[in-house]
Amino acid sequence: MDFQDTKEKVDVESLEVTDEDVDSVVIKKDEDVAVEVISTEDDPTLPIFTLRTVFLGIGLSAFTSVLATIYTFKPQVSICPNASVSQLFCLIIAYVLGTAMHSTFLPQRMLPTAGSWRYLNPGPFNIKEHTAIVIMASTASNVAVAMEVIAALDLFYDIKLHPALAIFQIFASQMIGYGIAGLLRTLLVYPTYAFYPTYISVVNLLQSLHFGGALNHKKRRYFWIVFAAIFFWEWCVLVNDYPFPLLTAISIICLADNGRHTFVRNLFGAGSSNEGIGLFSFSTSWTLITQGNPLVWPLRTPVVVGMALGYIVLTACYYNNVFNGRDILWMSQSLFNDKGGRYNQTAILTPQNTLNATALESVGLPRYTTSYVISQMCYNFSLGAAIVHVLLWNWPELTKAFGKMRFLKSSQDIDDPHYQRKKYKEVPQWWYLLLFVAALALGIGCSYNKGDWLLPAWSVILFTVISSCIAVCIGFVAATTGFTLQIKHIMHILSAFVHPGRPVAVMYVNLYGNSTAYQCLYMLQDLKLGQYTKLPPRATFAAQMAGSIIGSIFNYTMMHSIVTNNRAALIDPVGTRVWSGWIIQSYNSSSVAMGALGKELFTYGKPYYLIGMAFFIGLSFPIPFWIAHKLAKKGSWISRAAEFINTPIIALYIGYLPYSVNGQWWSCLVIGLLSQWWARTRRPKWFKKYNYLTSAALDGGSQVILFILSFAVFGASGNSVPFPTWWGNPANLSVDRCALTD
């Protein structure tokens, strides 16, 4: 008896030590984060499509789609560049409203919870309701490229589509990507390696809010403490951006120079849009820092290598007058004439929106800034490298997913512990295939307007096929690293050769060559979110479809209202403090440069032929490192270094800097080292429990306060009032005091 008691005591103590050891084990493989951080807990009895789900799902989908459309037509300012409606914002709002309905809604107190009444009185707000609402709202908040193209047609070409035609066009372009995503599930959703790093914090937050236990109680308390702290911190920083804008980007070098030297501004400036590339500039605002996802991106992704090369390459090329850009601006995405002024693109087009060769002779060819040319080249380098990188490094996964047409049967064994489909009916692959074919047919039909093809049917099919192939590559990179590659530049080049002299057709290619791949990526991420939270596949399918339908309707309706009432401001290159068409103008500028002048600018021997060639050059980038990895001794430093060199990401980040505001990247570097190196290796227990929850709290709190201040202070509602000038807010210096202003 004594022996048995002793044996049981020893076993218990051994088990306790083992659990502690597991918590303290360092996460070495990036994809293991999804296994170590996210729980596999599931309750198949939880209701999903309840009154709360329908009411909040539809309401938040309408709200987020309208808000995202408004943001599309807002000026880009230093305090909130490229403001958007994030998934975490949708998650937090849905949680607050869902728990409020559970606590206060009348049927909760008076109606029974059994039988058909359970849809009105389903009990506590649960994780599956919450996930379905988040997927609906975030799907609706993804502003369709089709909406932006339709706005550009209206503003710059006076082509007004029938409302029904426009809405169906928006919906069709999204559903094509959705159909592709469904067919790629066995490759980019089900397996463990497809873990989508940026979604770990979202899932961790959902589970912390809804799962019970002492640990999750601590996590919920921790989340709300950090949420409140960043909320008030961003209140101080963002509001103080009016009286003291230096907080946006702090650069000791810029403060010492005080705007005297353009070289200092170009290299170290970072506080204002298109000011500089931000070397040694630090931001105190999480609304900027979060763009770098420092708590989420795996440290082994070589972003730092790419940016370090970017500082050297961009500066050297500009000051050596590469691409004849030394006499125009350092950073800009606009077209310039031979004297460095804004290019008059309307002067070279006929009333039928084709090239006027006679006018071109007198106006001359447009020019790009050197930094923008380098950036386009790097994006194309990155895409070419990504294709070969995936083929070389991920060939076993490709053959496993696609071998013997298994991607049509979904019959392969899945190693992800979160893949628990025995309890739920899967969405048949033929559903997605049928959706793809139907959406493609609808897209072709909607490309015909008033007796003319905006984009020929054969071109719709061609670029859909190309985009589908590219979606595999960019999906693999996003699923394993969290990074999103850019494909629009290579699509513009390709479309310029397919449709020479037709700017409208070139712009429309964005719907099928560019947008389709990204819509596919958005859908893949949401499918993985459903897998992590054990939302039944058919419920995920229904939520995505509902969000897309609602988003299409409100995207168009809001866009039409804004364009109709603010046409002059949206066409103006500068815009107003309330409305700006800078996003729409970029589509128009690209369509003119690529469509009308493709052969004059991008064929061999022309000024910018290397932009297109960069894609083919990039195909060779991964090969030397893959060969070194194969030839080197397994486990040697050469083998490990070659495996670390992710050439698509390095190439991407060489050209990532010449856009918008760059004051956040050095803050990201410091925070990323503290999180993904120090905490991950030295404090693994804290890292597993709180790192991704911290990311969610910081992102959520900063995005909620940004939303409030955008309408209350920063002019989203048209009521912005500039702060009086003083030393901390000078009239003749940029935000970080690095550049003189007009």
UniProtKB/TrEMBL annotation:
Chief place where the protein resides: membrane
Keywords: Membrane, Peptide transport, Protein transport, Transmembrane, Transmembrane helix, Transport
Cell compartments where the protein resides: Membrane
Matches recorded under InterPro entries: Oligpept_transpt, OPT
Topology relative to the membrane: Multi-pass membrane protein
GO cellular component terms attached to this protein's record: membrane
One function term, GO molecular function aspect: oligopeptide transmembrane transporter activity
Pfam families: OPT (PF03169)
GO biological process, one term: protein transport
Regions crossing the membrane: 54-73, 85-105, 132-157, 164-184, 196-215, 222-240, 303-323, 430-448, 460-485, 608-628, 691-714
Family: Belongs to the oligopeptide OPT transporter family.
The protein's name in its UniProt record: OPT oligopeptide transporter
Species the sequence originates in: Dichomitus squalens
High-level lineage: Eukaryota, Fungi, Dikarya, Basidiomycota, Agaricomycotina
